[in-house]
Design a protein that fits this description.
The protein has three helices and two strands, in the order ααββα. By secondary structure, it is mainly α. A two-stranded antiparallel ribbon has the order 1-2. A hairpin with a 2-residue loop joins strand 1 and strand 2. Helix 1 runs antiparallel to helix 3 and helix 2 crosses helix 3. The protein starts with a helix and ends with a helix.
Length: about 80
Amino acid sequence: MERAEIHRRSLTNLLFGTLFALIFVLALAPPLYIALSEEHALVAGVPGSIWYLLLVSAAPILVAYGLWRVEGRRGELD
């Protein structure tokens, strides 16, 4: 493998690893959810605490899909 390709893969792995870690830290941060559950403002007709739960559950799916697309373009899924 070329040195540039190895460097690009390691940067991509670092990026996706950081995104997954950030999502799971946010998902496991009870103070953030508790603070949002006290906020009763509606955003598009839905309370902020529900948006938090929806975003925290959809974010890992979107990041995993992005990782799948990147690996597919590289030909690593064969």
